[in-house]
Amino acid sequence: MSVIGVVGAGVMGVGVAQNLAQCGYDVVLVDKDEETLDAARATITRNCRMSALMGGPALDADEILARITTAVGVGALAKASTVIENVTENWEIKQRVHREIDEVCAPDTVVIVNTSAIPITRVASLSSRPAQTVGVHFMNPVPAKPVVELIPGVHTSQETVQRTRDLLTGMGKKAVEVKDSAGFVSNRVLMLTVNEAAYLVHEGVATAEQVDEVFRGCFGHPMGPLETADLIGVDTILYSVEVLYEHYADSKYRPCPLLKQMTDAGLHGRKSGRGFYTYDG
């Protein structure tokens, strides 16, 4: 089985790498420094140990980590048949990383863009292989979420779509194919909801706890929108809303100032230990 490259060892990249390794794929996980990669290995170990306790399958952390090679920089992607990019929803960073990927990967490598908002055709414009560039919007936590959005760009070939579908099936995912549009389906709706929920807190209409209690109690949602924001990452929410606001030039996507302030303050949610709520450990 060929090696799958995973770029970015943040929350999403770690989840993708773990999911692939759980399903028997050999993975090379790359990021900018060893400290981040050490943290990724520790997170995967913890996730595996907690899996059965959280209602998931029993996982052997050593067996899964044995399938994951880590490396600093994208040079290790040269032999990957498929690369899954998972860097932050920041256009400047996406541009730099995709130009680097384009330089080191083989001509037939499929490049999957894991994004929640940025149009795939825009990312493909950076590549010398737009026919082999395709979007997949994975959900968090990746190993536990069975459905993804699959997004071909304008130039994506059917062969690339099929290769991606086959990989997703191998990861245990069902792919829902949607057209290329900023935010796709899920985040055109979800980001509006989270942004408006943040406005309710910002304007003093309700606390985060009250907002989330309404959604859980009245609508039967397992999580409220601000709990969801903490899980996704407050900074990621802000970047996604900014992409929607820029792309559609529609005031309904105007980012809530509270999201900006929290991002500047490092209150990014679960991954930083504090967002709309405070987390231990």
From TrEMBL:
InterPro entries, sorted: 3-OHacyl-CoA_DH (IPR022694), 3-OHacyl-CoA_DH_NAD-bd (IPR006176), 3HC_DH_C (IPR006108), 6-PGluconate_DH-like_C_sf (IPR008927), 6PGD_dom2 (IPR013328), NAD(P)-bd_dom_sf (IPR036291)
Occurrences of domain 3-hydroxyacyl-CoA dehydrogenase C-terminal (ranges): 183-279
Residue intervals of the 3-hydroxyacyl-CoA dehydrogenase NAD binding domain: 4-180
Binding sites annotated in the UniProt record for NAD(+): 8-13, 31, 89, 94, 116, 140, 271
Pfam families: 3HCDH (PF00725), 3HCDH_N (PF02737)
Biochemical pathway: Lipid metabolism; butanoate metabolism
Gene Ontology molecular function: any one: oxidoreductase activity, acting on the CH-OH group of donors, NAD or NADP as acceptor
Site entry: Important for catalytic activity: 137
Signal peptide interval: none
Domain of life of the source: Bacteria
Classification via Gene3D superfamilies: N-(1-d-carboxylethyl)-l-norvaline Dehydrogenase, domain 2, NAD(P)-binding Rossmann-like Domain
BP terms from Gene Ontology: fatty acid metabolic process
Keyword annotations of the record: NAD, Oxidoreductase
Family statement: Belongs to the 3-hydroxyacyl-CoA dehydrogenase family.
The protein's name in its UniProt record: 3-hydroxyacyl-CoA dehydrogenase NAD-binding domain-containing protein
Organism of provenance: Streptomyces tabacisoli
